[in-house]
Design brief:
globular, Arc Repressor Mutant, subunit A, Helicase, Ruva Protein, domain 3, DNA-binding, about 400 residues, 3 domains, three-stranded antiparallel beta sheet, Rossmann fold
DNA sequence: GTCAATTCACATGAAAGAGACCACGGTCTAGTG
DNA sequence: CTAGACCGTGGTCTCTTTCATGTGAATTGACGA
């Protein structure tokens, strides 16, 4: 036993490293120049440049599919803007600050409700806000005072703003834009980033127009562009010549298949690298890319399954059970009756059908199941549900769920 | 045969509740000088 | 006298329930050709 471990460590230490610096493949790494987004960044600069002169820039709304570089460009731009502003301030002795704040609205417990968003903003300005307990308008007041003590332009980047608005309504944007009229010295501009263009349809037209005074579209990358991006990063991250021919092509092809998602391509490459490192291989071969694809999917599913509440898991379990007993589509009603039985066996209080219906919709959003609403005429209207995860993953999920629900 | 009404089996919305968490301010208690 | 313990009130947040309303096409049934 001991020998085995020793041996493993030795070979591990002896093996030549594949990675030079893995950090360059991480999603939060901001490169010094962003390929194929020069135009978009230039546009952003044009729209937001007034901040440098102390004027409030227009609000900006950025949209585009996932992995098209929206967040990255915004971060990059934020960095540049603050740098320039600081330099400018010293050189010309200006009397105002430019501050860029980035918040991801999807982050649980940080910025996914109105209260938390404003609280987080106030914290950015050094105020101590409790996680709960205060009235929301109190927090607004604190934030207001915190920023209005000196002349400054605040640019607020709200990433995945669609999630926030879908969940809590659009008054947040309204309140934030309206704050400007209450502020004497400071001004706030909002950059909203979303990958769902349609969500603005449900918004109050006034809010909509004030949020998208300017709009910017990020088109998907094509396969060639993704390849270039990957090459660029791979050169930084990997030791030379460890990547076999075709690996980059394969990663980008897989990612391009899904609307040119560069983030996915990078993740594939990174995970493939990690897998080959783990096996002490000194080459990154195509084989590992395939494995990486499976692993990413599996990890994602397990992550969701693990973090969701019990009732979620029970519903998912009943989907798994009923999909095993029946091929083709399953209907909501079938799942619900199966679910009730499972709850009885597990000593769980079953939820109403209303709630289960919502849970099914959420599972669909998460991409664990495919649900399509169809009308069967006289025989009602329901979801046609099928699993969206490969069968070898379902088996494992089923096993863990079974244990959990006992 | 045609066309509008009906009907089913849920979907979808809105509102409100339960229970957990927490801040704030007031009151009570115990320890201190 | 003062610090800390202990309420009560009022706030947010998540998960749920309750009640109400919406929905799309297969089916039905009246109607006219």
């Amino acid at each position: 036993m001991k020998d085995e471990i020793d041996e493993f460590f030795e070979t591990y230490l002896d093996s030549k490293p594949i990675f030079k610096n893995k950090q360059y493949l991480q999603a939060n790494y901001i490169p010094n120049s962003i390929l194929h987004r020069e135009n978009e960044i230039k546009q952003m600069a044009k729209i937001l440049a007034p901040a440098l002169k102390g004027d409030k820039p227009s609000n900006l709304f950025i949209y585009g599919k996932t992995g098209t570089g929206k967040t990255l460009s915004a971060m990059y731009f934020a960095k540049k803007l603050t740098e320039t502003a600081n330099k400018n301030k010293e050189m010309r002795n200006l009397d105002f600050n430019v501050k860029v704040i980035y918040l991801n609205c999807k982050l649980k417990r940080i910025a996914d409700t109105e209260y938390r968003l404003v609280a987080q903003l106030a914290r950015e300005f050094g105020k101590d806000i409790p996680a709960t307990g205060l009235p929301t308008d109190e927090v607004y007041k604190i934030f207001n005072q915190a920023i209005d003590c000196e002349k400054q332009i605040i640019i607020l980047i709200l990433d995945e703003i669609d999630q926030l608005i879908k969940k809590t309504g659009d008054e947040i944007i309204y309140s934030l834009t309206r704050m400007n009229s209450d502020l004497k010295k400071a001004q706030i501009s909002i950059i909203g980033i979303s990958n769902d263009l349609m969500f603005t349809d449900h918004m109050d037209p006034r809010v909509k127009s004030s949020l998208s005074e300017e709009e910017l579209m990020f088109p998907p990358y094509n396969a060639v562009q993704i390849q270039q991006i990957l090459r660029n990063r791979a050169d930084l991250a990997f030791v030379e010549n460890v990547i076999e021919n075709g690996v980059i092509e394969k990663c980008s092809a897989l990612a391009a298949r899904e609307h040119g998602d560069a983030r996915r391509a990078l993740e594939l490459l990174r995970v493939a690298g990690e897998l080959s490192e783990r096996e002490n291989s000194d080459k990154l071969t195509i084989k590992y890319v395939d494995e990486a694809e499976n692993k990413i999917e599996r990890d994602r599913v397990f992550d969701i399954v693990g973090t969701q509440p019990k009732q979620f898991q029970a519903v998912l379990f009943s989907i798994l059970v009923s999909s095993k007993n029946k091929k083709g589509y399953i209907l909501t009603g079938e799942i619900y009756s199966c679910y009730k039985e499972i709850c009885n066996n597990a000593g769980l209080r079953p939820l109403t059908q209303r709630r289960v219906s919502d849970i099914l919709a959420e599972l669909d959003m998460l991409g664990i199941i495919n649900a399509k609403i169809t009308s069967k005429g006289r025989y009602g209207r329901t979801r046609e549900i099928s699993l969206a995860i490969p069968s070898n993953t379902t088996k494992k999920v089923m096993k863990t769920l079974k244990e959990k629900l006992e």
